[in-house]
Every structure is written in structure tokens, then in C-alpha cells.
Write a structure and sequence with these properties.
- The protein has helices spanning 14-24, 37-45, 95-110, 126-134, 164-169, 192-210, 238-249, 252-256, 273-287, 290-293, 296-302, 319-328; strands spanning 3-7, 54-61, 65-73, 79-86, 116-122, 138-149, 152-163, 181-188, 215-222, 228-235, 261-267, 303-310, 316-318, 338-348, 351-360, 363-373, 377-386.
- The chain is an alpha+beta fold.
- The strands form three sheets. Strands 1-2-3-4-5-7-6 form a seven-stranded mixed sheet.
- Helix 1 (14-24) packs across helix 2.
Amino acid sequence: MGISLTRVDLAGADNAELTAFLTSNEFPFHVRARPTAPQIENDIRAGSWHGEDVETFWIDDGADGRVGVIRLHDLQDTTSMVDLRLANAARGRGFGTAALRAATDLVFSCHSSVIRFEGQTREDNIAMRRVFERCGWVLEAYYRDGWPVEGAEPVASVAYSVLRRDWAGGTTTPTPYGPEVTLTGELRCADASQAERVRAHLDEHIALTRAEPGCLAFDVTPTATEGVWSVSERFVDEAAFDAHQRRVAQSTWGRETAGIERAYVITGRAQDAAALVATAWAAEERLLDPAVRADPREVERLLDPSFVEVGQSGRRWTREAIVAALRKEPGSDPSPPLIDERESRLVGPDTVLLTYLLRFEDRLSRRSSLWRYDPAPRCLFHQGTPVV
């Protein structure tokens, strides 16, 4: 795939071409899914598509031609914004990821005042959210009812961004603060002995937890069922919750109740089960992208230092050997790999096992990958078995 960005000339023929592109395609996750020609013409005259701090580019592919348009605005501010739109027929083919990477390079290379590049989309626009994730952008905000919808109730808006320093260093910096973390569920004793240990140490456990600086609320109360307690916890953010977990693991309570069943649901963590799995799949797909495979820095960022792969031939590969091999032969097939029969399993609080069927470069194989969050996803182990 050879993506290039070509500046839209709104003083010439591109004016009519832009109007034709925007009216001939549907953009279901934009506020105006089907903009009309008068609306677009008014926006152009108002400077929404060109001006001192707005630049618009065609997204051109060497094989498929013109596949979309990308608008960069607020370019004179420290935070620039992106609006990316692909043609109906171009979606799901990797063009969005390639275009956003090219736009990020352009913004930071040509606009020295910009220190962060931001994009917003609807929370249910999973395709665009995957594009942000694949490009190393970080989820920064969740705005309830922040995205108006024509003829319907508003939906939540989510904001992603990339920092200049991360772009320059090839890194990804997670946000230091997140939403409140809550834990709800039950502590279930199997016998009277376990219940007695809970009663003996519970008051101290509650007092120590409520004294933690990040604890907003903490309650453990007996239910109508003998030996079962209801648990409810709230912490200011994920860091506070993780600090609580580390303290408890070393405490008297932690030692005395280690074997007692917990049935908990945790929300608000970046590492919720659904988020862990989704991020692991996004990272797995990045490792299959030829552009990523050819970049040693990107591969090293995605592989744990102790990474091991057992290849389709049975050969054992280390991280260093894989990085060197992929630099020489990242893959030549421009079409995106096809992943079928996806399955995922949480095998630890921060570890995900992925298995799938891969069609890539005219080969069919079954794959398994083990990802751990540290705090970004890093692959610990990978194995491929050819399907014959």
C-alpha cells in the first residue's frame, strides 16, 4: 500500500471534486452522515476546509487512486485536530491507518507550534478507534452525550491524541489519571473456618483501606447467606486501586484470606477484561502490518524483552532474531492479513491469550499469542502452525 497526501486546491477544480466526494459517500459516524452540496459549499466559503490554520489533503493510494480526504485544523494552536473520511469502498482495507500516520508525520514535521495532535469520534465507531490504537494514539477522554446524532439521542464522544515527544521518540505515554475504579461483588467462604478468619481480620482491613489516600469508599457487609459478604470499593483512579491491591497482598488480611473465593467485577480500569482483549487484538494486528514489521523500533515496542516465538518450521526465535529477520523481510503482500476464528482468554489479571486462523501472503496457519500489559501491551510468546 503506497499512501500519499495531496493538498486539496479549493481555489480550483478541487472545489467541485471535494463536494462530489462528500456527497457521493456516506459517513455514518459523523454529525452529518450525508452532507448536501449547499452545506459543503457554505462550509468551504466559511473557511472550514481551508484557511490560515486549516489544511485539507486527498488520500491517494498508488493502486486504488483517490480513497479519501483528511482535514487538519487548529494548526496554529498547540493542539491540532484531525477529520478523516474514507470513501465507502475504501473502508476496512488499512487506508485509514496509513493516512493517519502520514498526517501525523506531516503535522509534527511542518507545524512546530503543535505539541499534541487530537482526534475525536463516536464511542461506537470501533473502526476509527482501532485506527487510533494502531497508530499509537492514547485514549484521553470520554464525553457522555458529547456527540449529536441527527434524529436520535446523542451518544458519547471519545478523544484520542498523540504527543510530539512520543512521535519523535517512537514511544507511547499512557495517561497518568483515569476514571474512578470500582469493584463490586462477593467474598464467599467455603466453611466456618474461612468465615471466622474473615471476621477476625475484617475490621482492621476496612480501617486500613479507608485510610488510603486514593480510597473514596470501601464497604464489606454480611449478606443473608452465612459466610458470604458483599464488597463495594471505589478508588480515585487506577494507580490508587493498584496501590491498594499491592498493599493488601502483603497484609495480614491478604495472607489470612488468600484461599477464599472472590466473585468481583472491576470497572473503570484501562485493563478491564474487554479493554485488555481489544487492545491485545489491536497490537496483534499491528505486528502483522508490513510497515510496522519493517520498523525495528515499532517491533521492539510491541515485543517483551523475553519474547519467544516458535515458527511454522519449528524454529525457536528470540526477540532480537525476530527484529533482525523482519527488518530484512517484513512481507511484500500489500493486502491486509485476514484473521478468522478469533478466540481470546484472560489467563491472568494483565495477560491475554489470543488464538486465530491467519491468511497471510498466500499461506494459511493457526496462530497463538500471549500478551502482557506492562503497562502497554507486549507480546511474550507467539506460535504459528501451518494448515495443510
